Amino acid sequence: VSKKLVTTVSSCADDAVAGLVACNPGLRLLQGHRVVLRDDLQAIRGRVALLSGGGSGHEPAHAGYVGKGMLTGVVAGAVFASPSVGSVLAAIRAVAQAGAAGILLIVKNYTGDRLNFGMALERARAEGANVRMVVVGDDCAFATPGKAGRRGICGTILIHKVAGALAEAGASLDEIVEKVTAAAKAMGTLGLSLSPCSIPGSKPSFQLAEDEMELGLGIHGEAGVRRMKVLPADKAVETMLEHMTDPSNTSHLSLTPGSSVVLMVNNLGGLSCLELAIVAGAAVRGLESQGICIARALVGSFMTALEMAGVSLTLMLVDEELVGLIDAKTTAMAWPNIPAGPATTRREEVPAPMEGPRKPQDEPGAGPGTVRVERVLEQVCSTLLDIQDKLNELDRGAGDGDCGHTHARAAQAIREWMRSRPPPAAPAQLLSALADVLLEQMGGSSGVLYGLFLTAAARRLRGHSDSPAWADAMDAGIEAMQRYGGAAPGDRTMLDSLCAAAQALHALRSPGADPLQVLAAAVQSAEAAAEATRHMEAGAGRASYIRSSRLEQPDPGAVAVAAVLGAVLE
């Protein structure tokens, strides 16, 4: 049995509806029934009321579409089961007694829904109610639909919206029926799934192999039209659009260049939002390439099949009037709040901002000469490349095993940069330039941390390059890393080595201190601190999620810092 986060299997449909109503002040439950109604029923006096519904498990359909400008009420069945005649009739009576001028039932084309809503309609008419029913069948899956006809799927939501906007504008029952019937005929939907779904308390309804996807599934896990190997998103969307518009398919939608459509990209429940956005972009591109204008695009979870990892595409041919009805305001919580306008992949990009002018550096001859700088940097790069495998090995126990690769990437980037131009000799310029190289090329959090360190240190060296200034620069760099990185000495990170070295560099502030001796002491301190991280509990970074008993080696970041300082001394 598949895992489900429910309280009890038997109460899950009731609990879901109750949860929705609890969180939405515009909704009310009808006593004794799984029926959700608008809170302001008095507002429908003299207007047409719209009722819909069906099985649970398709959330946010249908209760998410109850609100001003959409549905007046919905009737929910158990999971994937039609609602009872008694509950549909109770909903009809509730809106009739509120003074509705007419009542329209919007029903998805499934035998159970047609029977139960149809029976309730006949009984309500016998009581004198003015009720009509529209059955929506928008599925494009089957080339030759059987006697049951096309299934009603996600396009039904667009019918809710069009009918709701017309009712809100005061249209008559006959006018609404005529307009939504025409809109429903100019609409098609097709689903594609990567996985099955399972009713709470049951096993999945079917199986798909790891490398398979199925085209044309129903929203209850009913069989589709064909299984195929998993395709990349753009090819999958191309296959869907071809099937939906193929003239040899009886249930196809005729699209011609210049046609205007509303596109709905619907998550069948278990697809990630990342995948959904990729599919949406591919659908817009595919339609644009055929000369179709996408007047509006709606992307989200509109009518799901529990946790099915899949997507459906709905296309509705529209004119200006229909677009206006789609754009009309609604308070229904599941209708997306998006700006009115067409979808296109050809949107002009915002131009990249110009870089601010760099301050000229007035430091001729300050700091070490360019040749010396090149020699030191080359030594640092060689060292990092030499210890690449060692750092990766150290990182495997606590991270993702790429610390060596990240530092090697930095070394290669610095070498490339030196080949392209001589490095500046002035310390502040040199550290700023290195920060830019590492931020752009190194990657990982290490790249940002080194970038922060070098940027803050460079600021401290502007106009100063005497020995005490280097001690100040080291402190400033560490302070910036701590402020944004959140680590402190003792947390088993690169900061342990850096802080130990900084402590030793404070000796540079003493008059007459020998910089080389001080640097040698700093390297020794950094190496000792790196080795000491072997016995520390990780307090920051990815390693902090690993039990300390598993971290029996020194921290790779601390080892890398000690190696860099050692290379500078050489």
TrEMBL record:
Keyword ATP-binding: yes
Cofactor: Mn(2+); Mg(2+); Co(2+)
Active-site annotation: H220 (tele-hemiaminal-histidine intermediate)
Region (Disordered): 337-369
Record-annotated DhaK domain positions: 8-335
Top-level lineage group: Eukaryota
Binding positions for substrate per the UniProt entry: G55, S56, G57, H58, K108, D113
UniProt EC number: 2.7.1.28, 2.7.1.29, 4.6.1.15
GO terms, molecular function: ATP binding; FAD-AMP lyase (cyclizing) activity; glycerone kinase activity; metal ion binding; triokinase activity
Residue ranges constituting the DhaL domain according to the UniProt record: 371-570
PROSITE patterns in UniProt: DHAK, DHAL
InterPro entries, sorted: DhaK_ATP, DhaK_dom, DhaL_dom, DhaL_dom_sf, Dihydroxyacetone_Kinase
GO BP field: glycerol catabolic process
Cellular component, GO annotation: cytosol
Record field: catalytic activity: D-glyceraldehyde + ATP = D-glyceraldehyde 3-phosphate + ADP + H(+); dihydroxyacetone + ATP = dihydroxyacetone phosphate + ADP + H(+); FAD = riboflavin cyclic-4',5'-phosphate + AMP + H(+)
Record's function text: Catalyzes both the phosphorylation of dihydroxyacetone and of glyceraldehyde, and the splitting of ribonucleoside diphosphate-X compounds among which FAD is the best substrate. Represses IFIH1-mediated cellular antiviral response.
Protein name: Triokinase/FMN cyclase
Species lineage: Eukaryota, Metazoa, Chordata, Craniata, Vertebrata
